[in-house]
Amino acid sequence: MGKRTKTKSKRKGDKILLFLVEGDSDKRTLETPIEAFLDNQGISGIKVKFAKLSKTEDGKKVSGGDPTSDISIYPENIEEQITKRVDRTTEEGVFVYPKEVVKIIQIVDLDGAYVLDENIHRRSDKDLRGEKRAYYADHIETDNLFATTRNLQRKRENIDYLVSLENFKLGSKSIEYSIYFFASNLEHFMYGIQNMDGDKKIGCAKDFSLACMDNPELFEQKMRTGDYLFRDLTYAESWDFIRKRGLNSLLRASNINHMFEDLTSWGKRFMEEQINND
Predict the structure, then answer these.
(1) Does the residue 180 lie in any domain?
(2) Beta strands 253-254 and 173-183: pairing type?
(3) Where is average pLDDT lowest: 2-6, 98-102, 258-262?
(4) Which of 83, 37, 20, 24 minimizes the C-alpha distance to 260?
(5) 196 contacts 204 by C-beta, under 8 angstroms
(6) What is the Cα Rg of the chain in Å?
(7) 136 within some domain
(8) What percentage of the chain exceeds 90 in pLDDT?
(9) Would residue 217 count as lying in a domain?
(10) Are 250 and 135 contacting, i.e. CB atoms less than 8 angstroms apart?
């Protein structure tokens, strides 16, 4: 395959494939390569939109964050809360209405959610205090043991619920849904770094996206056939493994390869439906 020039996808349509992500680094890493993947699969007539979910800090909603660990969100209200936290406009100012969404894919960082409480330690290095949490292969360090333990418990409850869903209630509409993980987070999977600062995250995401434009095969190598993927496990088995209580959710791992299998089969169905509707 030859080099892809840096051009914006020309795909058009009034139907939306909606990705729910936690921040800019996820969006910048995945958006352009996924557009290219769909183009290469011949899937047209749909817009790809990435919605950064918000988190609550000091009682206020802040764009970009992890609602699954928000103590005010629990399985009984998470669909409603995520609907509220989906930014109604993207950075490009394109409105996203639930009635236009035909599929939802959520991507989460696990952040060691399934570690045992005994693997959560009070931070000992005074020089690192103020960074809230730090992740390691065999433990998490934090300035606030109670808050971290409570947040991770809530995250487990919410993720367990989301993994069980086949359809997500976005507003009043029930939409086909699936969820995929990076452990312990996106940067850990991509670059082998668990505790990367925000500016470096964005820089690495930009560099990767640009590299994929020049070499589209790079994205496939990393996300579909690369190391640290659960290629020998099914989608359900990958979730069962990573949610085992212990250290699995701190591994460098992802089931993102299953997302592309899902998109390929879904795309074929979507295109057939468009032909039949025409």
Answers:
(1) yes
(2) antiparallel
(3) 2-6
(4) 37
(5) yes
(6) 19
(7) no
(8) 59
(9) yes
(10) yes
The residues, ordered by sequence, that sit 6+ positions from 155 with a Cβ below 8 Å of its Cβ are 66, 68, 69, 111, 113
**CA 266 from chain center: how many Å?**
18
Q: pLDDT tens-digit profile of 30-75?
A: 998 898 889 888 999 999 999 888 766 666 666 667 889 999 999 9
User: Tokens for 140?
Assistant: 């998490």
Q: Is the pLDDT of residue 94 over 80?
A: no
pTM of the predicted model as reported, rounded to 2 decimal places? 0.89
19: which strand partners?
A: 50, 105
My answer on whether omega of the bond before 184 falls inside 30° of 0, hence cis, is: yes
Residue 46 lies in a domain: yes
Question: Quick one: CA torsion of 134, 247, 110, 210, rounded to 10 degrees?
Answer: 80
Residue 114: how many other CB atoms lie within 10 Å = 22
Please provide the DSSP assignment of the chain as one string: --PPPS-------S-EEEEEESSHHHHHHHHHHHHHHHHHTT--S-EEEEEE-EEEETTEEEESS-GGG-TT--TTTHHHHHHHHS-SB-TT--B--GGGEEEEEEEEE-TTTT--GGGEEE---GGGTTS-EEE-SS-EEES-HHHHHHHHHHHHHHHHHHHH-SEEEETTEEEEEEEEEEES-HHHHHHS-SS--HHHHHHHHHHHHHHHHH-HHHHHHHHTSSTTB-TTS-HHHHHHHHTSSSSGGGSSEE-HHHHHHHHHHHHHHHHHHHHHH-
Separation CA 43–CA 154 (nearest Å) = 37
Our count of domains for the chain comes to 1
In angstroms, the CA 194 to CA 246 distance is 17
Domain containing 89 equals: 16-112+154-277
